[in-house]
From TrEMBL:
InterPro entries associated with the record: Actin (IPR004000), ATPase_NBD (IPR043129)
Coiled coil region boundaries: 393-420
SMART domains: ACTIN
Biased composition (Basic and acidic residues): 454-466
Protein name, UniProt field: Actin-related protein 5
Top-rank taxon, per record: Eukaryota
Lineage: Eukaryota, Viridiplantae, Streptophyta, Embryophyta, Tracheophyta
Family under the similarity heading: Belongs to the actin family. ARP5 subfamily.
Keyword Lipoprotein: no
An example Gene Ontology CC term for this record: nucleus
């Protein structure tokens, strides 16, 4: 598996010393891009095959970053609106704009400047589409001017290299589990059999992404710490492939010894996994009896076991007649064995559990303050409070002085108007902001009320008798026949102003009455509390409980209808009387058409129909407002006199709030990421892709499909192929992959058939090394496609192009 340590490859300085006949070898993998010279043991440049294009924060210029980048550079670039982009789609290159950025960076790091005048050998997946191969050839020929190119399968190059090391034979099977796809390629006489190969869109990327999703769902508070790169590192260090997924999963079940209490053995539920029968039911004919080459005794084994079980039951009944204590002894023995298995399973699960500790800083615990310190803090708090009170008193004094001066000025102005004649009133008012005596009287009344409020005196309702309103609006009482058109307009305006003034006066009187009633109610409550505090508190709690239930019931009925209140069923029983009446009116209005003359609207009462049809008319809003106001008053009263009272709206159960942990300090355990089932559950997608929603075959099933597609190959050669199965690719580094493959393929093959599975020497670099050895051979030039042939024959030559691996 590739490592994602941030290391930028350095530029090579010896590009000029290689002759133009020395080929350049490129392993264009879905995870990493490797480029180097033919004949060398390792690639010169290796980087992650992704591109990101962030913007510079200062200039706004878009820059291109190929491969991984140093996180310290993120303070200069804005990467929030961009993400990593890969040129691949399921191991097939389709984003050639991104591919060009990758090739530019790779050739520049290798030392090339403008034109690449070396032959190129590039790896590709098996059965690469013609469109992808032709566009890649066009990019290399026309952009970089390479003299010749050759394309080869990476898994076959890895197989040829390991064959030189003696790890595999001439005939064999190459299982390549790559980054985003996996391939099974049969190799006969050193050449791949393309018509028998098998492919599935599952690889190391899906394992890492599945692990990231599981950990993010399990620890939502640490999603920022569980990055894709960190999930890849955890996969490399801790994940493994279980030989038997179901048995491995049972070790991590949360079973307790109490499950076998009361003398009864209760098996724990197994609902967290799915088992599948590995024989390939997709290619078998339903209803036909096929042995798949296995002996008939194996197929009859379930019947033989059932017969043996029946005989054991009969013998048990016979022994029970002779020894009645036998069932209790057997039950006790089985209970003890189950207890031992549970304890053993828990111990094994603990041994296989890994923990990843996130950085955690313990909260600072201050020293307990002394009595002198507490007294000093209390004195400082009192001093600050007194300073604030003095400031508030000073502001209040200034406000009172301003209001008194303003009130004195207004009273002097009114007195001055009383002492002068009517013609001189307009000249006096011209120097003020008032236009009439009524405005001055209204301003005087407002200032007097503000002054009484500032001094803390009880406010008085504003009295406006009919005579004052009549004086202010004289045209209201004049008949329309005696007024001119301009006076009629002014009369309408005065009627509107008078109505508005009367409405304000009524609202003020109502507020004053409510305040007076509230003060009286508070005085009565205080008298009751002082007379009998315990009884008063109990009555107040009962009142609060009654009002809260009433308001909650009304809200529930208004939201969900009158459900389950009358005991009836059906929609009619769920509707209230007002709702039923509204439904009747809607129905009659919808179907009452064309029945005589339409006289709707002739009377003012007709328009009340829309109000009755409205949903807002279903409940008594006035009663609801009164209950809610009373509930608020009782709640406020309880909060004042009962320190232990908590309103129902503030009571939230801990399990209903995902932020419950924030009410307690974060501990070291909260920053611990536990890897248990995830260690083998994530790699299981290589064998059961349906776990992540991909309906395709797993690695072991792919091997069986590929072998059955070899119809023209004899069975002895198939046995030779299964003797030499090579596993390569990044996922081949997962521990336990080879035993799991052997167990799965052995179920497919005939009984006692030979089977040998080996891992490549270096599953990651063997593809590039094998291609480097192949490109260094003298016959490599005969397997290349020159630029002259490309310009003459075009894409038709690429469709027929296939290199020979046995040269």
């Amino acid at each position: 598996m590739p490592s994602y340590s941030i290391t930028r490859p350095s530029r090579q300085e010896d590009y000029a010393r290689f002759s133009p006949n020395t080929p350049i070898v490129i392993d264009n993998g879905g995870s990493s891009f490797r480029i180097g010279w033919a004949g060398e043991s390792d690639p010169r440049v290796t980087f992650r095959n992704v591109v990101q294009r962030p913007r510079h924060k200062a200039t706004g210029e878009t820059v291109t970053i190929v491969g991984d980048h140093d996180p310290s550079l993120m303070k200069y670039f804005d990467c929030t609106r961009t993400s990593f982009r890969s040129p691949f789609d399921n191991n097939v290159v389709y984003q050639f704009e991104i591919m060009e950025y990758v090739l530019d960076y790779g050739f520049e790091r290798l030392g090339a400047n403008l034109q690449v005048d070396h032959p190129i050998l590039m790896t590709e997946c098996i059965c690469n589409p013609l469109s992808s191969r032709s566009k890649m050839a066009e990019l290399l020929f026309e952009t970089y001017g390479v003299p010749s190119i050759a394309f080869g399968v990476d898994a076959v190059f890895s197989y040829k290299l390991n064959r030189q090391f003696g790890r595999c034979n001439e005939d064999g099977l190459a299982i390549c589990s790559g980054f985003s796809a996996s391939h099974v390629i049969p190799i006969v006489k050193g050449e791949p059999v393309t018509e028998a190969c098998c492919r599935t869109n599952i690889g190391g990327y899906h394992v890492t992404n599945y692990l990231k999703q599981l950990l993010s769902l399990k620890y939502p508070y640490h999603m920022s710490s569980i990055t894709w790169e960190k999930a890849e590192e955890l996969k490399m260090e801790h994940c493994y492939v279980a030989t038997d997924f179901a048995s491995e999963l049972q070790l991590f079940q949360r079973t307790e010894p109490s499950s076998v209490a009361d003398g009864r053995v209760r098996r724990p539920p197994v609902a967290s996994f799915r088992c599948r029968f590995l024989p390939l039911s997709r290619e078998r004919t339903i209803g036909s009896f096929a042995t798949d080459g296995r002996p008939l005794e194996l197929l009859l084994l379930p019947l033989l076991l059932f017969a043996a079980f029946t005989a054991a039951v009969r013998s048990f009944r016979h022994c029970h007649c002779c020894c009645p204590q036998l069932p209790s002894l057997l039950l006790q023995s089985s209970t003890t064995s189950v207890d031992a298995a549970v304890i053993k399973g828990n111990e094994e699960a603990k041994e296989k559990t890994r923990c990843w500790q996130l950085p955690w800083v313990p909260p600072t615990q201050g020293d307990v303050p002394s009595e002198e310190e507490l007294a000093r803090r209390a004195a400082l708090k009192e001093k600050q409070g007194q300073r604030l009170r003095d400031m508030a008193a000073a502001r209040k004094s200034i406000r009172i002085t301003e209001l008194e001066n303003e009130l004195t000025g207004l009273e002097d102005l009114l007195q001055q108007l009383d002492e002068v004649e009517e013609p001189e009133v307009s000249s006096i008012l011209s120097g003020t902001k008032f236009f009439s005596r009524q405005e001055i009287e209204s301003a005087t009344l407002r200032v007097a009320q503000s002054l009484r409020k500032a001094k803390g005196e009880p406010s008085e309702p504003e009295e406006k008798n009919d005579s004052s309103l009549s004086e202010k609006y004289p045209l209201v009482s004049v008949p329309d026949e005696l007024l001119s058109p301009e006076q009629l307009k002014e009369k309408k305006r005065q009627i509107f102003l008078k109505t508005t003034s009367e409405g304000r006066l009524l609202a003020k009187r109502k507020r004053f009455e409510e305040e007076s009633l509230r003060e009286k109610q508070n005085q009565l409550d205080e008298e009751k509390r002082l007379e009998n505090p315990e009884l008063y508190l109990e009555q107040l709690h009962d009142r609060y409980r009654e009002l809260s239930e009433k308001v909650e019931l009304r809200k529930r009925v208004k939201t969900n209808g009158n459900q389950n209140l009358s005991g009836g069923v059906g929609r009619g029983e769920r509707l209230s009387a007002a709702q039923k009446e509204r439904m009747r009116l809607l129905t009659s209005a919808a179907f009452d058409r064309g029945k005589g003359e339409d006289t709707f609207g002739a009377r003012d009462e007709d328009w009340q129909l829309y109000k009755l049809m409205s949903k807002d008319n279903d409940d008594d809003d006035n009663g609801q407002d009164e209950d809610e106001a009373e509930l608020a008053r009782v709640t406020s009263r309880l909060q004042d006199i009962d320190p232990n009272f908590v309103p129902k709206s503030d009571l939230v159960p801990p399990q209903a709030t995902p932020e419950f942990s924030k009410f307690r300090p974060q501990s070291l355990e909260d920053f611990k990421i536990v890897l248990g089932v995830e260690r083998f559950r994530c790699p299981e997608v290589l064998f059961q892709p349906n776990m992540i929603g991909i309906d395709q075959a797993g690695l072991d099933e792919m091997a069986g499909i590929s072998l059955r597609r070899l119809d023209r190959v004899d069975d002895p050669i198939k046995d030779d192929i299964t003797k030499s199965i090579l596993v390569t690719g990044g996922s081949a580094l997962l521990p336990g992959l080879l035993p799991r493959l052997e167990a799965g393929i052995r179920q497919i093959r005939p009984y006692l058939s030979p089977l040998t599975i080996v891992r490549a020497c270096d599953p990651i670099l063997d593809a590039w090394r094998g291609a480097a050895i192949y490109a260094n051979s003298p016959q490599f030039s005969l397997q290349t496609l020159s630029i002259q042939d490309y310009y003459e024959k075009g894409e038709s030559l690429l469709s027929q192009y296939q290199i020979k691996y046995t040269i």
